[in-house]
Amino acid sequence: MTADFYAALNIVKKVLALDFACEENDFDKEGVFVHRTKALPGRRKFPFREKSLAVATMGRGVVVSCNGERLRWAETALSRLSRNEICSAPAAALMERYVNKEGQNIVGPDLKHICTQDIFVPFSTGKEVEIKLVEDVKLLGKIDFSLFPDCLGHSNNPNRVAALARINGEITGMAAATADCDIMWQIGVDTLPDYRQRGIGKATVSAVTKYILKQGIVPYYSTFLSNIASRSIAISLGYRPAWVEMYSRELKI
Length: 253
Prior knowledge:
The chain is built from 6 helices and 10 strands; from the N terminus they run H-E-E-E-H-H-H-E-E-E-E-E-H-E-H-E. With about 250 residues, it is α+β, with helices and mostly antiparallel strands.
């Protein structure tokens, strides 16, 4: 299922259509398509927000998903924008001002990458760094996960596999995958500051990617547009951009 990049893009499109309660071909047509949010089976298992506003594009059509009370505003304020305009700073600020009134802010735009067997470029470090794959994350034991805040995700989705990097017995980095849905798992990675620029993040992400691909599942990797170091890890392993996403969530107090 994950051997071919373009086949994987169709899987992404299928999942996003469930996430955004839209038609798959909305992503293939020019224009902005506004839909009411629904909790459809098969979508990524993120919290369902009664007050929602989310935007996604795979490069052509833009889909906006929101709750019923926000439909008229979204259709008026966003539906006439172009793909580039809706992902721009002014549009993000417009959405931010709107959702701020109800205690939310806008996250993104996030760039999402995917990988498949035909483009994967495995990587391993030298003998100095030991990489261990852990298929049952419950076996990770008493690791101080606060040292790796971007590794195990911020949702309640189950973590399926992790790769630990050790130097002289000390855990210096970790990558892990969360099962956001049955056919797409998201990878997160963290390396201790004193050990960066040594290939540790790249090696742990490579190990997790290899495992996910063997399961016939699409691995995806999310970065803020400004996180060049993280994007470089993904690209160096063969990951390619697949979609851009923005969404509202509750303000952190």
